[in-house]
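User: Predict the complex.
Assistant: Input components as received:
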Amino acid sequence: MGAGRLYVAVAAGGFRRYATYRAATAAGVFTNTVFGLILVYTYRALWDERPHLGGWDQSQVVTYVWLGQAFLSTLAIGGGGVENELMERIRTGDVAIDLYRPADLQLWWLATDLGRAFFQLLGRGLVPFVFGALCFPVYLPTDVGTWVAFLVAVLLAMIVGFGLRYLVALSTFWFLDGTGVAQMSWLVGFFCSGMLLPLNIFPGALGEVVRALPWSSLLQAPAQILLGHADPLGTYVFQGAWAVVLLGAGRLVQSAATRRVVVQGG
Amino acid sequence: MGETGTGRVREGVRAYLMIAGMWIRSTMAYRASFVMTTFGNFSATLLDFVGIMLMFSRVDVLGGWSLPEVAFLYGLSGTAFGLADLVIGSMERLGRRVRDGTLDTLLVRPAPVLAQVAADQFALRRLGRVVQGLLVLTWAVARLDIDWTPLKLLLMPVMVVSGCGIFCAVFVAGAAFQFLASDASEVQNAFTYGGTTLLQYPPTVFAKELVRGVTFVLPLAFVNWLPATYVLGRPYPLGLPQWLAFAPPLVAAGCCALAGLAWRAGLRSYRSTGS
């Protein structure tokens, strides 16, 4: 059977697995909605003070807030992706079983994570976004093309997000307890993805730097396409380049890890 | 059981300290990870504040409040929440114990269950958040020109302790809810982390209904909004009487009593996984 079918099955498994926890999903939707509400008011206060900050009007900021809440779990910006499980498997030594499988370790986990991300987008992202769109004046593009372009950027964002978190998870091969590294990476991700504050209103050189880092592929890049502030092709090149770099780095680290590190418990 | 109430409390505190001490020793086995997570805890909250500073790099006031004034709110809320999170934050993991059945081991031990759950996985790294809150608060007080009176000075520690009490009540109530919905531990994040995030910003930013909700329904406003507006000499948005600024201890006591009742009801309703 084709290798493609295997990974599709793995992704479908990831989707179904996360879909099992309905109460947890409902709880997450509730929490994302509450945070969205808080952020909407603070951002609107900011834009009241400085209209057209970063080239956005009030309705575009509101759209951005609800996109952020939709993407927080989808892209596991604050953690919560498959990397937690992978880190645990490395710590306990179970990763040895994964390495035995007739499948590529990185692709296996990428497929699982994509399945998870698609579920989180539908299960956790959609409801807060619709709630926000119904309760606040939001900016939504009317042409289908923009939405399609946006969704492509979301898919690329999922891959870049995985690339970053896979590297974090692999660090467990050396640290054994990956909690510290994971926590640091979430912090950096939170700050550099635009979850904390939209990257287009970061001042001066700091803004230039964060917009060039891989994390800006996650939330900022799809958002700018949806808000009509970015050229889709240029954005794809940027996201695609980071995806290649990160997945390539993941591959290198993976081969170093599996060659040099003795599996725990062996 | 013929024990007195105070005996029960003393027993609980003793059990809590013993378990917490054990977890501290266990954490120290992975020292590098401890240092990193404490620093991470400190930076996580620091980042929140960096976000606010970045906002103020673009504006002079937010909802009519200056940066030091917002920092004052931030420091108070961060310190109060940080203390509650340090002391009792592990309770958000109760749902997991209900799911996998390990709560049963706590029930058969000769120590109050609340103390055991509160001290479970005690994480000293959470001091990072307290320290960060205190630093921001100190900076804010130094920058602000507050017209100090003995009453205002007294209100400061009272505010932090009461705020900690209110957040502890939220943690306990959230844990009690997990007896009913063991998968839904994230709901309480909306009130704990969401609550402290809300309180970092001035009440003037939010819609009146939201401010009313956190004043009269879930009284988070008593953590810092009401007392801080008094210290800063600002009017509270809902036009409430000024003496309410001194209500936090009462509100905290009331919240803790209600949370305690919720906890008892939750624990009584607990049926083991049965396997």
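The first helix of chain B runs from residue 5 to 27.
Let me know if you want any component modeled separately.
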